[in-house]
From TrEMBL:
One of its GO terms (cellular component) is clathrin coat of coated pit. It is a peripheral membrane protein. Keywords: Coated pit, Cytoplasmic vesicle, Membrane. Clathrin is the major protein of the polyhedral coat of coated pits and vesicles. Pfam families: Clathrin_lg_ch. Residues 86-118 have a biased composition (Basic and acidic residues). This is Clathrin light chain. The lineage of its organism: Eukaryota, Sar, Stramenopiles, Ochrophyta, Bacillariophyta. It comes from Proboscia inermis. It is found in: Cytoplasmic vesicle membrane; Membrane, Coated pit.
Length: 171
């Protein structure tokens, strides 16, 4: 019969790709960008060709690399300037914000202190109607609203001013 299956050659034989045709690792920022074939052009195949001469493609590639380096340097310097400016702006923003915050905190502290002093002074006062009058808004916004609260406002003011009436009502 037939030869064993292990000894039969494959129907299509695939040749491994040579190292020079395989792609390498991805380029980094410092790697030059190379245009053209990955292999150097053969040198010395013509009678006119000398090893010291560069082909037009090699000259173009060299010039292009110089242009790319200049662009990259310009981009990096511009980027550094923008970063420095943004850092300065952020510092100014934080300074202004901190200053505003400190001012607001100081104002709130003083307002709180004056409010506490006012409350303590009201508690020491014997006439409780004075505290009531402070808590009630006695100024009317419009003429129509003032007619509705006129009697109440008059009663509160009279109680505030007359200690005898206030004591009589509180007993």
């Amino acid at each position: 019969g037939e030869p064993p299956a292990a000894e039969t050659p494959p129907a299509v034989m695939v040749m491994p790709a040579p190292e020079e045709y395989m792609m390498g690792p991805p380029p980094t920022e410092d790697d030059p960008i190379i245009l053209g074939s990955p292999m150097d052009a053969p040198v010395g195949f013509g009678e006119d060709a000398t090893p010291a001469e560069k082909t037009p493609m090699q000259k173009f590639a060299d010039e292009w690399q110089v242009i790319l380096r200049e662009r990259k340097d310009h981009e990096n310097s511009s980027k550094a300037e923008v970063v420095m400016e943004s850092q300065k702006e952020m510092e100014l923003f934080h300074e202004r914000r901190d200053k505003t915050r400190e001012t607001r905190m100081a104002k709130n502290r003083s307002d709180e202190q004056s409010k506490l002093e006012s409350l303590e002074a009201d508690l020491e006062n014997d006439n409780s109607w004075q505290r009531v009058v402070k808590m009630v808004e006695l100024q009317a916004d419009t003429v129509e609203a003032s007619e509705d609260t006129k009697r109440m406002r008059d009663v509160l003011i009279s109680l505030k001013n007359d200690k005898d009436k206030a004591l009589a009502l509180s007993e």
